[in-house]
Design a protein that fits this description.
By secondary structure, this protein is mainly alpha-helical. It is built from five helices and two strands. It folds into two domains: 78 residues, no CATH class; 66 residues, Orthogonal Bundle (Helix Hairpins). 49% of the residues lie in helices and 5% in strands. Strands 1-2 form a two-stranded antiparallel ribbon. It starts with 15 loop residues before the first strand and ends in a 7-residue tail after the last helix.
Length: 171
């Protein structure tokens, strides 16, 4: 059975479906080629919606009208149930890395260098500071200042060690 174009006073064959309304898009009117083109030019699915309704439609369509939730709404501070202590080892390793990192950063500060400095710059700066703070060279140093040479030497050793072991990350 042939369908006739549903446009007023048109007798052409209506083979092109068009939704009857926004709320009932599965129920169709049928138009001829000329009138379906006119319909498509004037059809606005969002006509009559408030801005809030329009935003909701856009949000729904981005997930194909499936329910969705915001990312990151879980409580990440909540501990997981770990009866076999699989994750405690990981936490302990990360904690020791953090301690190494903070110790290393304080070593860089003590040598008055940036962590991006190369090994030659570290050696050069160490020699300058060692001469400045060495107790034999500076007999007038107070007790708290004489410890400075030991601190600088320990900082230098830690930095040199970090150059030799790439597993320590200072970032």
């Amino acid at each position: 059975m042939k369908k006739i174009c549903e446009f007023l006073n048109c007798k052409e064959e209506g083979i092109y479906p068009a939704p009857r309304s926004r709320k009932d898009i599965t129920n169709y009117k049928y138009y001829c080629i000329e009138h379906i083109r006119d319909f498509n030019k004037s059809w606005n699915f969002f006509e009559g919606l408030t801005e809030e309704q329009f935003e909701n439609e856009i949000r729904k369509s981005t997930t194909w009208d499936r329910p969705s939730w915001k990312f990151g709404t879980s409580n990440f501070n909540k501990k997981i149930n770990d009866p076999f202590n699989f994750f405690n080892d990981i936490e302990d390793k990360n904690l020791s890395k953090k301690k190494n990192n903070s110790k290393l950063l304080s070593s860089w500060k003590l040598l008055e260098l940036n962590p991006t400095a190369n090994i030659e710059e570290v050696k050069k700066q160490y020699k300058l500071l060692a001469k400045k703070w060495h107790p034999d060279k500076n007999l007038k140093l107070k007790d708290n200042e004489s410890d400075m040479f030991v601190k600088i030497t320990n900082a230098y050793k830690a930095i040199i060690k970090s150059f030799n072991s790439p597993s320590i990350d200072i970032n």
